[in-house]
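Table 4 source record.
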Amino acid sequence: MNKKQTQPLFYRGFWSQTKSVLQRYYKRAVKNPQWLLMFVIGRFRMVRSLAAFLAKSSASSYKVEESIFADIDLDTAVRALKEDGCYAGIKLPESVLQEIIEYSRSSPCYGDAEYNMGFLYADKVEIEANYKKQFVRADYFNGLLNCPAIKTIASDPKLLAIASKYMGGDAVVSGSRLWWLFVNETDYDLNKGAYFFHYDLDDYQCLKMFFYITDVSLSDGPHVYVRGSHIKKKLKYLLSLFKLRSDQEIIDYYGEENLIPICGKAGSGFIEDVYCYHKATPPQKSDRLMLQVQFALNDYGNSGDFVSPSLLKNAPCNNS
């Protein structure tokens, strides 16, 4: 890790972080009480297995021969997900990749996901100079609505079949995300980049499809997952309000050999059960752009990608 980076572990500022987490959970619970029930009991493997058992799947009804991912073997992918929690080796068609790249160049992204900090990626340096700050990340909002290539991926019959067969029930698309992680030489909050190991609890069963839109080597912020951690967790990890864990905790419990970084050229992708512990790593050489499409049994309406256009504002830029 870059020596200039601070490590504001989630234990620091415990009460302020607890307050922030509880406020976020309260809003979600008021919006959808079923989410709260899932969040309380869905972390336990027996409950997750029961949800999969009770769900109904139509995986065999998808026209997988019409998929844009001809090289993926459905059964191989599902088997890898069950054993390891992740299946790598997906490749976006070049035309789809280029469409996403063009969308990322021509559409505003929002610095540190702040709704009033929209800018084109090409203007990032100027915007940071104007505001005398460096962004950790930048998110594109409403990508599933505005980018046809993302819609194509989200509706792909083979991806839907894999998700449905693995999760045990018909998969629904519960959100997408397209975002940058930036090379950053200054002190910053590691939580903004999801640079701590954590697991996601978005539903009883949930898969996310990830695609690198830029080349990613070990120096470009690769995603890291913990092999087998979707099956095995300490009880204290399940009962804790916080889902974040330090590297050392993860290494001590799972073994360093099970921390798997994923690298690849632009267009390469992987499928992950995000109940696995996983994290991003800070880019050291080049900014990283990644796409995520989320499949679940239920959509609780918590996708952060959907934002009313009336709330989104561009930051002033001399080039605009």
